[in-house]
């Protein structure tokens, strides 16, 4: 018994050609990496950064993670695929591996295609550089962001070089965040070193409105706000067509 694909092969091929990804591949993409490429008004790749950002060491199966070795090729593919016009990054992360998170943030910041980020729930710790890496950033009013200095758990060597390493790492994060947002280095360091807010740690928790007021995030917004901003950026980047003048041909007698 033949199916519709066998009866109308040309129509089926034309339908798949007009889709950036067939529905089966979209489902596989969501299951494997939590991302999806959609074709609406424009072709957008949606990347989700959730849970804990996993670096060089694999976390347990009970942890919800974003694996940086899965995200790196996605970002490269978005930049190199002509059909994809922009990138939307959705964040709800507690942070994670500092070097892995900073590496992903550098990749996003270095993209030529329009990029927009939206913090939902939380964009904590190393999630802060990831949120500000996009060309335009949004945060939901109910979301929050935690700013704190670099810290490490586990066995550490108690020598001055260890402290020096932490200081240099913190300088890299501070420089990246302040170069990709409107917050000053002095204010960022002050918020990271605040001792009067967190009970068992130092740092500052900013809600959505405070993150915007501090200049860390560009604007409050929802998914529709982030999507519309990305559409405007895509349309502004497209070359405008010059008007074609109608030439009137003279009548020959």
In terms of topology, how is this protein built?
Layout: H1 4-7, H2 9-18, H3 23-33, E1 36-39, E2 43-54, E3 65-67, H4 68-80, E4 86-96, H5 98-109, E5 115-123, H6 127-132, E6 136-139, E7 144-147, H7 160-179, H8 185-192, E8 204-207, H9 208-213, E9 219-220, H10 223-237
Parallel strand pairs: 2-3, 2-4, 4-5, 5-6, 6-9
Antiparallel strand pairs: 1-2, 7-8
Structure notes:
The chain is an alpha/beta fold and 253 residues long. It has helices spanning 4-7, 9-18, 23-33, 68-80, 98-109, 127-132, 160-179, 185-192, 208-213, 223-237; strands at 36-39, 43-54, 65-67, 86-96, 115-123, 136-139, 144-147, 204-207, 219-220. The strands form 2 sheets. Strands 1, 2, 3, 4, 5, 6 and 9 form a 7-stranded mixed beta sheet that branches. Strands 7-8 form a two-stranded antiparallel ribbon. Helix 6 (127-132) links the parallel strand 5 and strand 6. Helix 4 packs parallel to helix 5. The longest helix has 20 residues, at 160-179. The protein is globular, with a radius of gyration of 23 Å.
